[in-house]
Amino acid sequence: MAEESVNTVKSGKKEFVGIVKSDKMNKSIVVTVETTTLHPLYKKYVRQVKKLKAHDEANDAKVGDRVRVIECRPVSKEKCWNLVEIVERAR
C-alpha cells in the first residue's frame, strides 16, 4: 500500500483516500487510511494506520474499494466522515 496524502478542501475540511475494510453496517463503512510520517529523532519513515467510520447513504461501497472521504459534522457517536466518491472498485 502506498502513502495516502491528506488533502484540505477549500472549506478547510480534511479529506482522505483509503480502502474500505468493512461494509456490514447499514449506511456506514469503515475506511482504513494509511499515512507515512518521518520520525523526528530517528529520521525513519513510520507507517500510521487510522480507521474511520464514514456515512455511505446509498450503501454503494464494498470491501476493498478505494474511496475518498471528507470531514463533516457528527452523524452519530463515531461517524464524522462522509463518502465523497468511489475512486476505484475492488477486483
Structure in words:
Strands 2-3-4-6-5 form a five-stranded mixed β-barrel. With 91 residues, it is mainly beta. The chain has a single domain, classed as Beta Barrel (OB fold (Dihydrolipoamide Acetyltransferase, E2P)). The chain contains no helices and six strands. It starts with 6 loop residues before the first strand and ends with a strand. 14% of the residues are buried. It is globular, with a radius of gyration of 14 Å.
Structure summary:
By secondary structure, this protein is an all-beta fold.
Question: What are the main properties of this structure?
Answer:
OB fold (Dihydrolipoamide Acetyltransferase, E2P), 6 strands, five-stranded mixed beta barrel, mainly beta, 0% helix
- Do you know the CATH topology? OB fold (Dihydrolipoamide Acetyltransferase, E2P)
Give the strand tally: 6
What's the CATH superfamily, by name? Nucleic acid-binding proteins
CATH architecture assignment: Beta Barrel
Strand order, main sheet: write it out. Answer: 2-3-4-6-5
Low-confidence stretches: none
Q: Give the H and E element order.
A: EEEEEE
Percentage of residues in strands: over 45%
Major sheet: size, sense and barrel closure? 5 strands, mixed, barrel
Topology, pairings included?
Blueprint: E1 7-8, E2 14-22, E3 28-38, E4 45-55, E5 66-71, E6 81-88
Parallel strand pairs: 4-6
Antiparallel strand pairs: 1-2, 2-3, 2-5, 3-4, 5-6
